[in-house]
Design a protein that fits this description.
mainly alpha; 66% helix
């Protein structure tokens, strides 16, 4: 059975907390991806896998592949013409200030940038328990200012109020996910806006063209990790067979879910155009 609990920074050991910090830096993200928090259910596996993959994730080759995937996803969204309700107006109706609207737009853009990276990482984890693969990396990419200077607070599921908790249940039921990803949890303190966004998500999820695009994203991600080196994680660890089943079900679940979440988050991001600061400057 796949892991369900997401372990927060104040719930884990120093070793796992260091991995969280290192992952943020390697991925150039101002938040800790849910994938890491869920895999912390098996600390020994997370330590061994990250010890192998951290140099790969820091590499220019990985970030180039992630950027190529992000651009591919954006091209699919543009070609499909999919959109949410106009988000500036929606936030205005929810009594968000102009400054808060700018922040939400920027945060959604950060999540749209981060999800393709997590999808590629999940693909690399799959390769690790499938025997590994050969490859080479040539350059370590410098950590960005975003990861160093900014931190987006993402409430855990246990912090959700009743209305957000009910929406979480519907998200899991609709998507088949065992966890609610950070991209939706970060707006959970504002259940009115979360409800509005989730309604838009559900409309997009019913579109058969989006579901076909999801498969295209999944195939593209599988191709982009070819040539990135991964050791044989199964052969180099002492994890029991029943524990491997849990790990595999967890990672496989993220691999199935992330292409769709990446697409819909990009639709959400695009629904902020024109950007709020551009409107205010005009």
């Amino acid at each position: 059975m796949a892991f369900t609990r997401a372990w927060e920074e104040n719930d884990v050991s120093r070793d796992i907390k260091r991995i969280y910090t290192d992952a943020r830096s390697a991925l150039n993200l101002p938040y800790i991806p849910t994938l890491f928090k869920v895999l912390a259910n098996h600390p020994d596996y997370l330590k061994a896998a990250w010890n192998d993959l951290a140099p790969v994730v820091r590499s220019k080759e990985f970030h180039s592949a992630a950027l190529a995937l992000e651009e591919y996803i954006y091209s699919l969204v543009v070609a499909g013409g999919w959109k949410f309700n106009e988000q500036r107006r929606e936030l205005q109706d929810q009594k968000f200030s102009v400054e808060d609207t700018i922040f939400v737009a920027d945060a959604v853009a950060i999540f749209a940038h981060g999800l393709p990276q997590i999808l590629l990482l999940a693909r690399l984890l799959q390769a690790g328990y499938a025997g590994g693969q050969s490859g080479r990396i040539s350059h370590i990419k410098q950590s960005s200012m975003i990861a160093q200077a900014l931190k987006i607070h993402v409430p855990n599921e246990r912090e959700a109020g009743l209305r957000s908790w009910l929406i979480y249940n519907d998200i899991k039921k609709t998507t088949g996910s065992k966890s609610v990803l950070s991209v939706l949890r970060f707006i959970s303190p504002y259940p009115g806006y979360l409800a509005s966004v989730w309604l838009d998500w559900k409309k997009i999820l019913k579109n058969s063209a989006v579901l076909r695009a999801k498969e295209d994203v999944s195939r593209r991600a599988a191709g982009l990790v070819i040539g990135l080196p991964v050791s044989d994680h199964r052969g180099s660890s002492k994890i029991k067979p029943e524990q491997w089943r849990e790990i595999e079900e967890t990672v496989d679940g993220f691999v199935r879910m992330l292409p769709l979440f990446s697409l819909v988050t990009t639709v959400w991001r695009k629904s902020f155009v024109p950007r709020p600061r551009d409107v205010r400057a005009a």
